[in-house]
Design goal:
Blueprint (H helix, E strand, L loop, with lengths): L5 H4 L1 H30 L2 H17 L1 H19 L6 H25 L1 H7 L6 H13 L2 H10 L3 H24 L3 H23 L17 H32 L2 H14 L1 H4 L2 H16 L5 H24 L1 H9 L7 H26 L6 H17 L4 H34 L1 H10 L4
Helix pairs in contact: 2-9, 2-14, 3-7, 3-10, 3-11, 3-12, 4-8, 4-11, 4-14, 5-7, 7-10, 8-10, 9-10, 11-12, 11-17, 11-18, 12-17, 14-15, 14-17, 15-17, 16-17, 17-19, 18-19
Length: about 450
């Protein structure tokens, strides 16, 4: 009976809800992790942990973009009924990334002293751990992208939930054992290892590739050509959500950076809350595009749900910011309430930007990159020159987030309107009538 309801016939909404439930569990565990760490680490160590996580997010952008590249090509294989190529794709990409990642890890380890000094962290150990995380972040998205490209949203939701649970479990254990900041970072590393290994089990039913076939029919140039805009797009989104925290850690005292870290962790819920929409939308739009269908209706639906979910998060954090901060992180952090309101507004616009950027990536457009990367560059420059107070940083963040979102929205509407006019049956009929007279 439930299957007769409109919702259960809508692939995007059904996949989004499935992912939402799994990610809700994972996000809940991640916030419990932050909650636990804010009470068992010093304010300085808590700020250091989150600045390292922001470093992980920004420097790991090329790795995380592999998720979209993997999902894109697997969805294409699915659309073309070439599932037998997926196993070969998995093996080739993992082998190449492990080889390149090993060299990158060595270079990063050599830079540990300079990174620790820039972030004002006394020990090199947490920096080394985050570099190991970056290495595994190159491998994890391959399998997750395959799961996403196959539109196995139940499996993807489970993996997201279990990853958050394992991070919390390892974190509590290592902090109780007395490992402090190093224990917190090690817990994240162990949960990442779990997230890398588990998809192998869930993908065991994929048929083995033909031993005599070693060509995916893609080509290195084509993969690099598509990967480049994905990397740049991911870099832009991650910069909008993380570069401010890294710069605050550098320019401000440890106590203020710790308060700002709590604001950023909580405020990003407005961005991450509707993130499941992107995960469900991307492979569906990509498959639709591969089948030469118009996926514009999927964008409208994704934007509508994003406005609803991100708007809900924004309203809650705007009304009771001090209560949320004191509840999750303790009264010490409640002084960041005015900052949280502005940070949440910025994340609302970044959430919409993320939907628009991923839609255009799925249909292989790249014009939006100039707006996104220009906005990120201006943000970094403005914060570098105008960082007298934390509120100044947030004014810049809101201004840039709104401007980038507005430009992308305007260009997208204009592009879709032009396409609608071209495909209009009335105009096409009018064109046929006029043709003999031209």
């Amino acid at each position: 009976m439930l299957q007769s309801l409109p919702y259960f016939k809508d692939k995007l909404l059904k996949g989004s809800l499935t992912l939402f439930v799994g990610n809700l569990v994972g996000s809940g565990c991640n916030y419990l992790f932050q909650f636990f760490m804010s009470r068992h680490l010093s304010v300085a160590d808590f700020g250091a942990m989150n600045s390292l996580l922001s470093l992980l997010m920004v420097t790991g952008v090329p790795a995380m973009s592999i998720l979209l590249v993997s999902a894109k090509y697997v969805s294409n294989f699915k659309a073309a009924a070439e599932v037998g190529k997926i196993r070969l794709f998995q093996r080739k990409v993992l082998r190449k990334l492990a080889s390149c990642g090993s060299g990158l890890l060595l270079l990063m380890l050599l830079s540990s002293p300079w990174v620790a000094a820039y972030l004002k962290i006394d020990s090199y150990t947490p920096v080394i751990i985050v570099f190991m995380l970056i290495f595994f972040s190159f491998l994890i998205p391959v399998n997750l992208g395959i799961v996403q490209g196959l539109q196995r949203f139940l499996t993807l939701g489970f993996l997201g939930g279990f990853s958050g649970f394992s991070r919390l479990l390892f974190g509590i254990l290592l902090i109780v054992l007395g490992f402090s900041l190093n224990g917190a970072m090690t817990a994240i590393l162990l949960s990442s290892l779990t997230l890398f290994l588990m998809p192998f089990y869930f993908l065991r039913d994929i048929p083995a590739s033909d031993p005599g076939v070693d060509d995916l029919g893609i080509g290195v140039k084509r993969i690099i050509g598509y990967s480049t805009p994905v990397v740049l797009s991911s870099l832009g989104i991650m910069a909008l959500t993380n570069m401010d925290l890294i710069l605050v850690k550098h320019y401000f005292p440890a106590e203020q950076a710790g308060v700002y870290a709590s604001v950023a962790v909580l405020g990003r819920t407005v961005f991450y809350f509707p993130g499941v929409i992107v995960m469900a939308m991307f492979p569906i739009v990509s498959e639709s595009y591969a089948l030469s269908k118009n996926p514009s209706h999927l964008l409208k639906k994704a934007l509508g749900v994003t406005i609803l979910l991100a708007g809900l998060g924004l309203i809650v954090l705007f009304i009771v910011p001090d209560l949320m901060l004191s509840f999750l992180f303790g009264k010490t952090f409640s002084q960041g309430a005015p900052l949280l309101r502005m940070f949440s507004i910025a994340m609302f616009f970044v959430a919409l930007t993320n939907i628009l950027a991923n839609f255009h990536l799925a249909v292989e457009r790249r014009w939006f990159l100039s707006y996104l990367l220009l906005g990120c560059t201006i943000e970094v420059i403005l914060i570098a020159f105008f960082h007298q107070r934390l509120i100044s940083v947030l004014v810049i963040l809101v201004m840039i987030a709104f401007s980038v979102c507005a430009l992308l929205m305007y260009e997208t509407l204009k592009l879709n309107l032009e396409r609608s006019l071209i495909e209009s049956p009335v105009l096409r009929q009018f064109s046929e009538i006029r043709r003999p007279f031209i």
